[in-house]
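Hi R.,

Here's the chain you asked about this morning:
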Amino acid sequence: MPTSSRRGVATRLATTAKSAEESSTANANGDAVVMAAKVRDVVAMISNSDGGMKMKAEERAEVDGLLEDLGRDGLKRAVNPNDDAKIFGYYDVSYVSVGPNQVGQPAGGRFRSPLGRFLFKTIGLEQNLFEPNKIENRVAFTLFGCLPGEVTLEGTFAPLEGKDDGRTVEACFGPPGISIAGGPKLRIGPKSKVVLSTTYLDDDVRIGKGSRGSLFVFKRKSAEQAARDQRRWGVGGVAIAVMLITAIGLGVYGVQQLQVAKNVLHSCGVIAASALSLAMAYILRDGGIVAEDADLDDGTVLELTVEQQAFLSKGRSDGGTKGENVFNI
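And here is the predicted structure, written out as tokens:
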């Protein structure tokens, strides 16, 4: 074959290979865009749903369908989430769907059952992954809506034996650690194992599927946000514990006096004081505030918008100017 012909063939082959590579890249980018859009839809649907507990059955079915679609789409992509450094970090458990073969809640266990949520109101649910292979599950709660506590599972994870697909790991946990009111952590219960596959991973969201069909959505948060949440979850533990013990003691004494004493007014007064102490403990939980700045880091100072600055500097009819107290008229 003449030299010029060989060069022509080589050029066409190189062009064809380049076109195929560009087409493959375009398809991969297109798939990533579609998956990211589905993830945004899921995040919007599960927002403020208490891990899915507040959602209707049809809403949960729609979310589960999207998560299953994402899992199938993810399997088509040649990615290994377990080898991606983004997989490590602090995560809130934003959504949990119980699998068809699952017994009980796969995140939080009995603490997330109807009775568990009545006695132990969940205020935080995390699954955190740390290099090289550490895992921590955390359930923060308030006992009777007042007394703070937490349950933690700590362990390690490794690729599942016989299924090293870059997605599936087996996590081995020690006995659960339970702490109430900032007290010492008690180890109660058996060791445990779970199998979890990461079906989707980006900078903000991790989606997983358990071996029994359970589905999870984890939303990333910074180390500073995690530390802030943990401080807020445990605030005032000892003080509230003392107040609760006092309230219970007053209540028991009041009921006893009501049964044996003739002074009904005195007994009712003691019981009323007990109820008031319980109410105070509930109100003083978290310092008596409702955290509206959940997305703000400690020490964050909000910048005024241009419109707000213009409003504050605008002259008043009396010739004065508005100060920081915008109600000063």
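One quick note: The domain at 24-232 is CATH 2.40.128.280 (Lipocalin).

Cheers,
M.
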